[in-house]
Amino acid sequence: MSATALVHRPGAFATAGVLRTVDHKDIGVLYVLLGIAFLAVGGLEALLLRIQLATPNERVLDPSTYDQLFTMHGLTMIFLVAIPILVGIANYVVPLQIGARDVAFPRLNALSFWLTAFGGVLLYVSFVAGGAPDAGWFAYAPLTEPSHAVGGGMDWYVFGLAVNGAGTIIGAINLIVTILLLRCPGMVMGRAPMFTWMVLITSVLIIAAYPVLTSALVMLLVDRQLGGRFFDPAGGGNATLWQHLFWSFGHPEVYIVILPAFGMISEIVPVFSGKPLFGYRFVAGSGIAIGFLSFGVWAHHMFAVGLGDAENAFFSATSMLIAVPTGVKIFNWLATMWRGRIRLELPMVFALGFIATFVIGGLTGVSLAVVPIDLYTTDSYYVVGHLHYVLFGGTFMAVFAGLYYWFPKVTGRLLGRRLGLAHFWLTMVGLTAAFLPMHWLGIQGMPRRVWTYPEGLGWDWSNLVSTIGAFVIAAGALALAANVWRSLRSGEPAGDDPWDAYTLEWSTLSPPPAHNFESIPSVRGKRPLWDRKHPDRMDES
Amino acid sequence: MTSSLEPIVFLSLVVGGIAAVILGGVLVALVVFTLRYRDARRVVPQIHGHRTLEIVWTAVPLALLVVVFVLSLVTLGQIGRGATFGSLEPPVRIAVTGHQWWFEFRYANGAVTANELHIPAGIPVELALESTDVIHDLWVPELGAKSDVIPGQRNVMRLFTARPGTFAGTCAEFCGLEHAWMRIVVVAEPRADFDRWVAAQAAPASASGRGLDVFRSAVCSSCHTVRGQVSVSGPSIGPDLTHVGSRRTLAGGVLANTPDALRAWVADPQRYKPGALMPRVPLSDADLDAVVAYLEALK
Predict the structure, then answer these.
(1) Burial A477-505 (b: 16+ CB within 10 A, else e)
(2) Is residue A246 part of a domain?
């Protein structure tokens, strides 16, 4: 039992206590609120980009502003939205799911949140300190070297990501220790909820991948401020070294933001199908396989760099291989639904949307692992379409599903169905309109990261549709905001277990008390609440 | 083979076909299961898994991917470094240099051009690509693959088209402010036409007049070479203009190469390509007319 339960006062979140809270639930909520605040910012940046690209030869933005906005949009959505929201949900849910009173190191937990937030502030200070980073979120050298990036934007990039990453690394260590050591009696790893499993794997990926980024950032800082030449070919350095370092962080990062999404879907689909997760061991095992393989696929971002045929073939093979454990999960979710009793509550609706969109992103991902196809599509809008299907259609749809699923636990109130369905359909239609045409634009030859484009190339309509889609997504986000607002004021009380769910967080109050459980539970299977409700049909342990 | 794009299209259709079947299967299962089992009123069987099924849906995608992988190696052989595209002729070699924000093309006979790549139809073309500043990437979608253009590294890429034609090309790697306007025109023409063109482009400039004097005395000559008349010391900063009058576009595709457009461009480059390295040069109207007349005469 941690010390925080003793110092935490009920209602502290609403008062100044928010600044010094070390309760995992408060910190989880803070993380999610941080992510939502930056989601609004990153979303507005995306709308500006789409306005500029709506028609050919548009002049709403100048190229300098456009470059800063697309760079900050990517950095924001990955480092300041996806990671904080996923870490926040993990922070809130994992200790409850494993029957613990808090995370292992509550004070470190607060530190990691504030570092993550402060890193975001540093990134955004750049706008008023001479210009934001403008070389894309993966910031290829030598465009970032002092000879080409004369402003301070890249320095803010280094400081912002390093500080933000330190917070994420510390948070991951905390979650690993929590999951390994604080599980309640009876919960061997083979009975841990799948979300907890995926958070564990993601956290291991974070502590393996983020330090590579930090190292690369320090090398870039040496180049920029101390006259180093790591990435400057003119001074004996190597321009592609940055790419190797960045992507050996960057590709695991893709799985860092998708594995917790897999975990949430693996909680929600079984509950709303009235069945256990089909193939628990295969789903957990495929997550581990994805974790390992994710460190051997980075150069599929670099097929056009000219590494050589043997190198390209190797990374092509590993990248195709990683599709197999990913496909396994999709088949397992479908098999979980098979012969179940499917309840189309809002979390399940979003989970179904996730499966439909993620499978598209996954399949286009396989096409990018095929070297000759990649040599055509890489650096084109096809890749932009693919990554948004994976990150928005994948991670964000799962986050929405998780939000509708756990919001009643956090607040004690249900979110409204009508606004929830409006949010769902606006998001599905919007993301299809925004991101599907991008694939076609890439096939037609439109390169990514162009601030404008000429007319007469057949790109006009697809771009206009994409821009309209972005605004439809934004309308969906407003429906979600209205839903949250209404629910907090006058939402239907949720009760402790509104979904007839399986895992321990639903056995305590909504919202949970400071100490989570009256007494530490003990379990004898994967679905402790199912066992409690169905003593005649308990899972075999 | 009709072009270096053809093998990629074939492979894409195979992969796309497999993907479409998988996507269709998943979506159908999703919809059917949702409709069929929605709010089912019966005791739901608590099925925890099925080992054989798991092995099947691990092994079948794996087998499909092995097939795709082997096909991709075959395709790579058809478009890679040693590709002949079914032609018996040795490849025509052209050196490509990426600059912020334009491409330079140098031919074996000394011809130099910018943002306009002429290639012979029916003969493989081997591009040797290097960059003077940051990483660029040369992509002509209708000819298939792309290659990064990297400082300190020499990449080689082979392209081919059997049919003459004009194709749009572009820089595909983000390279700074005017990445968008680093576009090229590729002109594929019959061998005889190509040979005539490349011989003409290798010849020194023939125009003259007051515009040349203005060009020499204004800052133009500190960046732009006009072979036989103006030479820049050191590496080229701006495009070689020896035969600029013969080119189809200006400034990486921002403008069509007409006298009016050229005049507007020289008068205020930043208006059309904000961020371009060419400064606005204060010239009187008379000097501007003279320079434009001179440049347009550089056929």
Answers:
(1) bebbeebbeebeeebeebeebbbebbbbb
(2) yes
Q: Which two tokens stand for residue A236?
A: 């004996």
- Provide mean pLDDT across the span A67-73: 97
Q: Residues of chain B whose pLDDT is less than 70? A: none
Are B185 and B107 in a shared domain? Answer: yes
Last residue of a domain, one of B193, B218, B237: B193
- Specify whether the CB–CB gap between B95 and B106 falls below 8 A: yes
A428 pLDDT band (50/70/90 cuts)? very high
Domain holding B281: CATH number? 2.60.40.420
Q: Are residues B228 and B282 in the same domain?
A: yes
Query: Could you tell me if residue B204 is inside a domain?
Result: no
**pLDDT confidence bin for A224, thresholds 50/70/90:** very high
Q: Which CATH number characterizes residue A25's domain?
A: 1.20.210.10
Per-residue pLDDT averaged across A258-276, rounded? 97
> What's the CA dihedral at A415, A202, A253, A304 to 10 degrees?
-120
If asked whether residues B157 and B128 sit together in one domain, one would say yes
pTM of the full structure:
0.95
- Residues B245, B160 share a domain: no
Residue A14 pLDDT level (bands cut at 50, 70, 90): low
The structural domain count of chain A equals 1
Q: Do A136 and B134 touch (CB under 8 A)?
A: no
What is the extent of the structural domain holding A330? 19-533
Residue A6 has pLDDT above 80, yes or no: no
How long is chain A? Answer: 541
Instruction: Decide if B139 touches A, using CB distance below 8 A.
Output: yes
pLDDT at A15: 56
Helix (H) or strand (E) holding B130: strand B125-131
* Assigned domain for A495 exists: yes
> What is the residue-averaged pLDDT of chain A?
94
Q: Are A414 and A30 in contact (CB under 8 A)?
A: no
Q: Which of B49, B68, B172 sits opposite A280 (nearest CB)?
A: B49
What average pLDDT does range A50-71 have in this prediction?
96
Taking the CA of residue B267 and the nearest CA in chain A, the distance in Å comes to 20
Pick left, alpha or beta for residue A57 (phi over 0 → left; psi -120 to 50 → alpha; otherwise beta): left
CA distance A5 to chain B (A): 37
Say if the Cβ atoms of B19 and A344 lie within 8 Å: no
Tell me the Ramachandran region of residue A230: left when phi exceeds 0, alpha when psi lies from -120 to 50, beta otherwise: alpha
Residues of A in contact with B47 (CB under 8 A): 275-276, 278, 335, 338-339
Do the domain assignments include residue A13?
A: no
Residues 33-62 of B with CB under 8 A from A: 33-34, 37-42, 44-50, 53-54, 57-58, 61-62
With H, G, I as helix, E, B as strand and everything else as coil, classify residue A442. helix
Closest CA to A234 of A135, A139, A136, A145: A145
**Residue A516 backbone class (left: φ over 0; alpha: ψ -120 to 50; beta: rest):** left
The tens digit of pLDDT for each residue in A381-415 reads 999 999 999 999 999 999 999 999 999 999 999 99
> Is residue A18 very low, low, confident or very high in pLDDT (cuts 50, 70, 90)?
confident
pLDDT at A149: 87
Host domain of residue B26: 6-39+49-79
Phi, psi of B249 (to 5 degrees): -130, 170
Query: Does B133 fall in a domain?
Result: yes
| Co-location of B19 and B98 in the same domain | no
Give mean pLDDT, residues A132-147: 94
Domain count, chain B: 3
Dihedral angle computed from the Cα positions of residues A26, A28, A29 and A32, in that order, rounded to the nearest 10 degrees? 160
* Any domain includes A6: no
Residue contact A335–B144, C-beta within 8 A = no
The 3-state DSSP class for residue A536 equals coil
Q: Which amino acid is at A207?
A: I
| B182/B265 same-domain check | no
